[in-house]
Amino acid sequence: xxxxxxxxxxxxxxxxxxxxxxxxxxxxxxxxxxxxxxxxxxxxxxxxxxxxxxxxxxxxxxxxxxxxxxxxxxxxxxxxxxxxxxxxxxxxxxxxxxxxxxxxxxxxxxxxxxxxxxxxxxxxxx
Length: 126
Description:
The protein has strands at residues 2-7, 10-12, 18-26, 33-39, 46-52, 57-60, 68-73, 78-83, 92-99, 115-116, 120-124. The chain is mainly beta and 126 residues long.
């Protein structure tokens, strides 16, 4: 079992930055891949980024490449999503989720996630 708690969302102007945190508890993180997803009303949840914790490989959606960075702090059992150069279209509820295959090669589909956090709202607006 793995519990995930997101934080760090908020209101930011276009061009600004936020850092989201996904604090985990329960199982050791190395047994999972962790992904960040976002959702806006009326749309499906979309994958933003993921990290294969056993090997440290990272993956990004094309829409965020070069602007977002996913990282981990194993000692703190936390996965971060640094978001720079934010755009209004980045607005949404951001969730972190865990996949049981720590070597998953890409952003896993939301339906394949084993555990989810409760989400944190990110609003990019002037």
